[in-house]
Amino acid sequence: MKRPRKIGMGTLFCCLMEREELEYRLPSDEGDPNIAGDAYRAPLGSRWDTPEFAAIFAATLRSMALLQSSRGFFKKPNVRAAFFNGIKLISQLKASHVEAFHAEIAAHASGNLTALMAQARDKGHVKVFHALKHMQMITSNVPLTDGHKMALRQSGHAMNLHRGPMSGFFATSFAETWSPILALLADGPGEPLGTRARGLRQDAPLMPVHREMHRISAQRPMLQAWHYLLHDAAMHSEILCVRNAHLGKYRYDFCHDLAKLPVPEDDVASTGEPGIYNFVSELLKAMEAQGRGYARGHGKTRRSSSRWVWISCAPCWIRRFLARKRMASSTSGAAEHALKA
């Protein structure tokens, strides 16, 4: 179907899982035994907000990312010849070659893809080595794969070489299965000008039992996503004092004051306010899955050691104040020099 504006599959899947069901009422609803309360009530969650649809959407996006990576190797002239040579060797790979390599793997060897590639190269299994190498290359931009882990590791190493060692390390572990915010999101918007069963300003808000919270978070994947993005965005903008932070394509400048500011001209990540790591110049965080079906991030930051870097990322009114101060001091110094002359 032709659309007036092209959208990506990820945006389409996100809109389907976030959409709200329409609620309407008809005169024929009264007295209908299939409608409770003689009034139709729309479900609180989207019909696509289920674990099954989330798995289908994730598998589709992963397959598209793999195809895009393979297409990129075909289109680049500088890597096309090496890629074709590897494909020729992979086409000659047989099950017996894989079985022979599997028999020579050490008993206590690491199971990651990089370690298996090193063993295949050292033991002379050239075809298996090229198969593993191509698998690692085409999965470098696919999350939750060994290729993506390698890309993150190389980015962190390049960050250390370019800027120096990290200044701080943090791991964000939010209360996912016993959170009043998650329960409030599960309640839905509620009635206009009505009362709510629980409020965030209460000291001890009314909470479901722990098993029910597990069921809610398992049945509604978008609730987990909203809960994590809300907390992680607050962590970056309010505690780390960082702007222009992204998780994939999602920007963490959810505050309207930060979103209205122009894009900074320098490469400093700080908002101009000191956070727990002072003025952050850059950060990198890798995500992982927890055993309870939730996400967790391990990040490292590097703070700026120069006050001139802080001045470059300070708000505009601070820069104007410092400029006026320098201008006043230079003017008074010139006047004193003229009087002495």
Describe this structure in words.
It is a single chain. This protein is mostly helical and 341 residues long. It folds into two domains: 9-20 and 44-152, no CATH class; 165-188 and 207-318, no CATH class. Helix content is 51%, strand content 8%. It has helices spanning 9-18, 51-75, 77-91, 95-103, 113-122, 126-138, 146-163, 180-187, 210-219, 221-239, 256-259, 307-313, 316-340; strands at 168-172, 246-247, 250-251, 280-289, 295-303. It is globular and about 75 Å long. 16% of the residues are buried.
Overview in brief:
By secondary structure, the chain is mostly helical. The protein has 13 helices and 5 strands. Helix content is 51%, strand content 8%.
Shape designation: globular
In terms of DSSP E residues, the strand content is 5-15%
Taken in chain order, the helices and strands follow as HHHHHHHEHHHEEHEEHH
Determine the number of helices (DSSP H or I, runs of at least 4 residues).
13
How many beta strands in the DSSP annotation?
A: 5
The percentage helix is 40-55%
Structural class: mainly alpha
Using only C-alpha atoms, the radius of gyration works out to 28 Å
The number of domains is: 2
Q: pLDDT below 50 for ≥5 consecutive residues: which ranges?
A: 307-321, 330-341
The residue-averaged pLDDT reads 77
Main pleated sheet: 3 strands, antiparallel
Going across the major beta sheet, what is the strand order? 1-5-4
> What's the end-to-end separation, in Å?
81 Å
